[in-house]
Amino acid sequence: MPLTPVLTTRWAADQSWRLSTYERLDGYAALRTALSMAPGELVTMVKDSGLRGRGGAGFPTGMKWSFIPQPKPGEEPTGPAAMPKYLVVNADEGEPGTCKDLPLMMADPHSLIEGVIISAYAIRSHLAVIYVRGEAVHAHRRLMNAVGEAYAAGYLGTDILGSGYDLELIVHAGAGAYICGEETALLDSLEGYRGQPRLKPPFPAVAGLYGAPTVINNVETLASVPFVVRGGAQWFKDFGPEKSPGPKIYSLSGRVVRPGQYEAPMGTTMRELLEMAGGVRPGHQLKFWTPGGSSTPYFTDEHLDVPLDFDSVAAAGSMLGTTALMVFDETDSIVEATLRFTEFYAHESCGKCTPCREGTYWLVQILERIAHGRGTAQDLDILVDTCDNILGRSFCALGDGATSCITSSLKYFKDDYVALLPPEEQSRLGRSLHIEPVGVAS
Amino acid sequence: MSALPGSPEGTAITGLDSSPVDAAALAELPPLTEQTRVEAREIIGRYPVARSALLPMLHLVQSYQGFVTPEGVALCAEELGLTKAEVGAVATFYTMYKRRPTGRHLVSVCTNTLCAVLGGQRIMDALSADLGVHHDETTADGSITLEHAECLAACDYAPVVTVDYEFYDQQDVDSARELVAALRRGEKPTPTRGAPLTDFRGISRQLAGFSQHPDAAAAAAAVDAPGNYEPTLRGLRLAAERGESAPPMRGPEREPADAGEPRETVRPSGGTGESPGQEAADARVAAADTPAEKAGAAGSHPDAPEPAGRRLPDGRKGTDTPAGQEPGTSGQGPGGSARTIEGRGPKRRK
């Protein structure tokens, strides 16, 4: 597939983050169109476009919007339908490997803001909040500036562009907690609490921010909306497979010649993307990679031709996640890599539920002793067993995600673990392997 | 974040009156003033529910004192009508709220997997040796607090180091050592991406939603500062080189946006699409937008045909600057009316 810059198309323009540039490059044209439509029509259009959430789960965006209870014509609204609606933007990018939303907000913050206004209008919301990761001060700065510009130009505030529609937009900085990327933890954090996930149901669509109906969408998802409006639902389907169409920002990092952001249709393969990025560094071979960040099971060189869209990646045993393609070669230790990721999950576990809090802690202990040559023959089974007791038994997806790298590394590279065991432990397994130690510090 | 047993974080430093910081150090801090309270109330005014202001308020008190002190906790509690324990519970959950005095600059080295394999761990080890401090410790001269950081969402620029959260990209041991040495000499090397370096307190002020700059011109300059964004722009430039672009948009509004009156784009057929109710809003919404999820959560219901053609050579490049051109430094805003971060929070909800 070719490169298809859509979301990234303005990024190289001079001062691309300024309103004047954005307006010159068709910015806010979609908003004018949207405001001339009925909110319900926009919801239908986004449904028809097939746009699926870019934050990792791939939930159909238009369908999510349609879950917001709305007053019925001619009836006095009651319950959630009578409450204010909120749009919350998940800009808490922090999944290891993921690095698409911050560049987007740096280079083209107005595309997010335009998407927010259109989407808020579609769900009949008058208050939207962008929850930006606290460490992302560079993106926060550009976003604050862009929001100020948008207010001054009448794109935000009261009676937007004379339409009678009002919207306030708040930029809210987080304070360093990966878990706040989980949507209900994000809501708790935004309400001024520790960022811990909520039990569902009720779902945010019914009882979200301040207990009112709330849509939470990822940055890239919302930035796609103005293009859907401008190009039309059918145009959006020109990109990639029918069931998960659209342009997608693929983030390549690690052992490639030219790491960076590559926007191509959904369903582009790793083989194609690697070629764009100049391949694996000279003299080395791909060993393992993640299709969508550290929470998605590893792939290997067997998976280079899997179309990178939600359904194809799932069918191949992993998850598309955030299309964060971290590339590792034969000099990188799969056990060390897995240990590092697991340390991350142990650090970021919010502590609310036992399987995740205790499980990630013990997984680190076991992986550490294996990595340092002190593992036992039993340890590999204990790893699997511990993962089994976390996966599907945790309060939120953080616990599930923590097991992905362990179970998939054992599936594809069990020998790498065995080779790190002391000889006597290996012999219990009937094995005798040796690999040169390669560490992250080498 | 949950602290591992035996780790420094595990020692229940609550930021409350049991704070381990000794009394002498606390006595040296600038006190929080009426101005701090005025700003705290301004933050509260941004939100429909007061407590939402707590995180920005903690950034605010940290911007005055360099960490979240018992006095800062008390101020937040008083202004929001919470107990100090409630505020302390929040302050101790988040990594960016420091519980002990910080140095003038906070140096964070990403040691998550990808940065680590590309040299981040070596950088952390070298800096730790140079400075004589470990994770979350401050040099005796008060110039630097060193920490290892989790993924900073800059993997295409790996390995990265941040100072007061401003990025220094594609570092190696030598460049990072030189960076830190310069900081200790009181210099402020220019970050790779933009804004001039200030300090930890200044950036905390920005995170509270206030300008850390003396005037609007300085704030605009920080927004517009040039940087090196090579990895960010690689795909875009490669597309230009190859003459590849997105399929053309259909519909009458296609070209110049100057006609301020774009027509409607393809109107979908079909009804309002408003649908199911709560029962539909079930298990699958649960999945949305979380870090790790079942990817196949639910198929949309595409009833439209898959169109053909996707490659087309061009047309669209006209609006972009030529490859190689970096963002300019002019700093002029749009029509001089730029509302910058300066003194502005979103208006209060009515």
Can you walk me through this structure?
The complex is a heterodimer of chains A (442) and B (350). Chain A is α/β, with parallel strands linked by helices and 442 residues long. Chain A has three domains: 19-234, 3-Layer(aba) Sandwich (Rossmann fold); 247-329, Ubiquitin-like (UB roll) (Roll); 334-428, Up-down Bundle (de novo design (two linked rop proteins)). Chain A has helices at residues 19-24, 29-35, 39-49, 61-66, 101-107, 109-122, 137-152, 183-190, 219-231, 233-236, 270-276, 310-315, 334-348, 354-371, 379-390, 397-418, 423-428; strands spanning 86-91, 127-132, 168-173, 214-218, 247-254, 260-265, 286-290, 299-300, 324-329. In chain A, strands 6-5-9-7-8 form a five-stranded mixed sheet, covered by helices on one side. Chain A starts with 18 loop residues before the first helix and ends in a 14-residue tail after the last helix. Among the domains of chain B are: 8-91, no CATH class; 105-199, Glutaredoxin. Chain B is globular and about 60 Å long. The two termini of chain B are 35 Å apart.
Write the layout of secondary structure elements.
The complex is a heterodimer of chains A (442) and B (350).
Chain A: H1 19-24, H2 29-35, H3 39-49, H4 61-66, E1 86-91, H5 101-107, H6 109-122, E2 127-132, H7 137-152, E3 168-173, H8 183-190, E4 214-218, H9 219-231, H10 233-236, E5 247-254, E6 260-265, H11 270-276, E7 286-290, E8 299-300, H12 310-315, E9 324-329, H13 334-348, H14 354-371, H15 379-390, H16 397-418, H17 423-428
Parallel strand pairs in A: 1-2, 1-4, 2-3, 5-9
Antiparallel strand pairs in A: 5-6, 7-8, 7-9
Helix pairs in contact in A: 2-6, 2-9, 3-6, 5-6, 5-7, 6-9, 13-14, 13-16, 14-15, 14-16, 15-16
Chain B: H1 23-27, H2 34-45, H3 54-65, H4 70-80, H5 84-91, E1 105-110, H6 113-131, E2 137-138, E3 144-149, E4 161-163, E5 166-168, H7 173-184, H8 200-207, H9 216-224, H10 230-242, H11 283-287
Parallel strand pairs in B: 1-3
Antiparallel strand pairs in B: 1-4, 2-3, 4-5
